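ok here's Microcin immunity protein, seq below lol
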Amino acid sequence: MLNLTKPSALKRGDKVATVSLSWGGAGDTEFLWRYEQGSRRLRDLYDLEVVAMPHTLAGSETVYEHPEKRAADLMTAFADPSIKAIFSCIGGNDSIRMLPFLDFELMRANPKIFVGYSDSTITHLACLKAGISSFYGPAILSDWAENIQLPTFTADYFWALAFEAKAPLTFDVSDEYTAEFLPWLIENRDIARKFTPNMDGYEVVQGEHTVSGPLLGGCLEVLEMAKGTALFPQPSDFDDAILFLETSEEMPPPWWFEDTLRNYGAQGLLNRVNGMIFGKPQSGKYYDDYRALVVKVLNEFGLAELPVFFNASFGHNEPKITLPYGRMAELSPENRTFKLLETAVE
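and the structure came out like this:
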């Protein structure tokens, strides 16, 4: 079972760093306003001092060409004792290229909050390898920079986890969500995206008994990139886990989802976990297909009783909860509840 070091809680006035570990658009001229809007939101909401690492705003071309500089920014942020948390600017699809340049011992010696989602799954796996609990949650460009205002749902869950150290904490499903694509143009900055009603809470796909275990997971497509590398979790990391999985805006087709999930079964990993919870797919696309395929694949491996929840508000969902790796959580099919059982920070 996972035994990860808890990072220290954030306090108002703390210094935090922003990093571009995948796509480097935060520094591109046409998107810089968006970065500034997200950084300002962190300052306004939580009184944080936000600093960019040396290459955070170097632009997408430079960031793409230099994965070693991305890794150097991450290592610098971990090593700097004045920096209390690290925020990913955005995902992408190639942060796996940082792998040769990561210093896991340096990270282990300097535990602190890292927060991001999507391609940031790679950095979460690096934290996992270093023995640090990290936060699968909001990114600067896609979340903190939401036009007009950050949804209270997103802001409150991050506060409860990172500042308040609240536990137990019930992870609700947001009453509404948005999947509207509004181009990141400065002339759109005062236009709010349209939110629509969500499904009523979690859907219990299968299972009847309450289970608990440490949180482990991420973006399914990015986890595939990590397979076969030093970053992919060890089989024992899945022991008794609550496995949280979600798909990206690429909306992988059902056949891919089925094959990928079956691979986890063939590795014996699904037989190790205590339960699974899936984020709502982008725009709800393939929701029914994915649900049917989860039941099908789990049945193939004799796991028809494994508790499985759908429709969770994390990952590629707006608004979203924040999930702390390695912290004990509970799935209760009878009550249709998903709870954090322990504090996420010291």
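fwiw The CA atoms of residues 91 and 120 lie 6 Å apart. kinda neat tbh
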